[in-house]
Amino acid sequence: MAKRNIVKVIKSCSRLEGELILPGDKSISHRAVILNSLASGEAEIVNFAPGKDCWSTVSCLKALGVGIRKKPPQDYPILLVSGVGKNGLKEPANVLNAENSGTTMRLLGGLLSSQPFLSIITGDSSLRSRPMGRLIQPLRSMGAEVYGRGKDSFAPLVIRGEKLHGIEFSLPVPSAQIKSAILLAGLFAHGRTVVHQPVPSRDHTEKLLKYMGAELEVDGNSVSLSPLTSSLASISFPVPGDISSGAYFLVGGALHPDARIIIKNCGINPTRTGITDVLLAMGAKLKIKHERVEAGEPLADIVVESSELRGVEIGGSIIPRLIDEIPVIAVAGCAARGKTVIRDAAELRVKESDRIATVSKELSRLGARIELLPDGMVIHGGKSLVGREVDTHFDHRLAMSLAIAGLVAKGRTIINHAQAAQMSYPAFWQDLQNLTA
Ligand code: S3P
After folding, report:
1. Angle (nearest 5°) at CA 233 between 231 and 238
2. Backbone phi, then psi, for 238, in 5-degree steps?
3. Where do the structural domains in the chain lie, given as residue ranges?
């Protein structure tokens, strides 16, 4: 069946100005609802991420017997979670559906491989084409029975929960999803679980687990976890704004010739702030104000103003700190003076779309000059973009990056399948309009 096509038309505007409250961080929200489901007691998660991805996690957890409801409408979405405790998850009566969300599938895949029942987890066509062997392999070495399509490479995954044992595992790629899946399985295993990362990736799982009473230690790039002896303590907290969603406006504000945007309550966990480091290196006028910490997660307000950007070279250990922001960094590269080179980012090929291919294809339609690399791209900046018809490939990060490109392009940019933005940021189009009004 053909998918719906919601079209958005973006035009350049004379001024970009205002204050923005971001949706709650998607990565933290997934973890907050999963870990509170395993805790004893009630938790109130304020500013829970409103995108479809986190709702996929919620509906899977509900199918596993967790009581989760939304508090009646407030300024921020509030989720109430009644934890079932350490041994309280129930066998789901049907196949679980992670839809488009890799974090849902991988984190729950880890958790379910330790639970004493059968579960099957599937996803949409994009998620069913993303690599799952990297999840299955370490879980099997913990004693899990997990199977996938294509010789255990792809979802749907069939998981017969088993008694697991802790392992010491070196991640071949710096993936926070796989690290978190192993740690979730390790909570219920016999003996300690140790994960070594080649370079650090987002550490929200570690932070929350520690906060909720798990015995966990971080030493450099290694994380070591002891199995749970009692249920985690539930935790109520406000989720910081999602810097990955803020990135569109950080770049938009820097590129626009007459802009000043204040982004309130934005998460600034150092494992996620590659975007601000890169924009500063490109010459962006950014100011970080009112830094504070909530439930172990740092947040701040960020002010961005019109800037003259220059190209940069990005690679190595910064990549996991900005992996989801590379599509919009590519937009910044198009407008910057000189060349922007992105390397060591082959992971982009296995995201919601092959982002090396889709980003360069769609930005090239607007007149960008981009050379493809197996693990990145070279963007020749300084060329004015011209509005044309483009497509999101059903990838939320591409939808929002194309909107920012459209904002600085001449004429009208017509974005097909713009509904993809709902995966992480349903209010994106409205927030953009408010800043341009
Ligand atoms: C995420 C980790 C990253 C990121 C994804 C969210 C997470 O994926 O791209 O959007 O919440 O753990 P990988 O772990 O595959 O790098």
Report:
1. 140
2. -85, 125
3. 8-23+240-436, 26-229
| Percent of the chain scoring above 90 in pLDDT | 96
Confidence of residue 1 (pLDDT cuts 50, 70, 90): low
Residue 150 CB partners (closer than 8 Å, separation 6+): none
Domain 8-23+240-436 has CATH 3.65.10.10: yes
- Same fold yes or no, 8-23+240-436 and 26-229: yes
Question: How far is it, in rounded angstroms, from Cα 110 to Cα 169?
Answer: 14
Homologous superfamily (CATH) for 26-229: Enolpyruvate transferase domain (3.65.10.10)
Instruction: Kindly name the residue from 53, 324, 391, 431 that is annotated as catalytic.
Output: 324
Q: Considering Cα of 421, then 426, then 431, then 434, what sign does the dihedral take?
A: positive
For residue 387, the CA-to-ligand 1 centroid distance in Å is 31
Q: How far is the CA of 200 from the centre of ligand 1 (A)?
A: 12
pLDDT > 70: percent of the chain:
99
Is 175 a pocket residue for ligand 1 (Cβ < 6 Å)?
Answer: yes
- Known catalytic residue: 324? yes
Residue 196, both tokens: 């070594």
Q: What is the model's pLDDT at position 3?
A: 83
Do the Cβ atoms of 21 and 265 come closer than 8 Å?
yes
